[in-house]
Amino acid sequence: MNITMTADVIQASRYDMDGNKGGSIIATQKADGTNPDRAGLELMKLACDYATVDLLREHLPCKCEIVAQPTQGAGQKMAFKVLSIKPVTAKAAA
After folding, report:
1. Is residue 89 predicted with pLDDT exceeding 80?
2. How many angstroms separate the CA atoms of 86 and 6, rounded?
3. At 7, which helix (H) or strand (E)?
């Protein structure tokens, strides 16, 4: 089951270690107010392909439409892998 979301992507990074390539994006959204101990922006890290960084390089930070697939992350926690990502707004002021 894939999820579709719109989020403000503020960073994209990638790695190439011993032939293993991959990357990640950092997305933000305003805290929904359900946790009284958290204020400001929520941060979410999503795994992505190595090439995603080049796709986003000239656009960041920006709002993006993201389709992601839930996967198993470290420590048996749920993580998300970006299947597709498309910038939908012009580059925001950094």
Report:
1. no
2. 10
3. strand 3-17
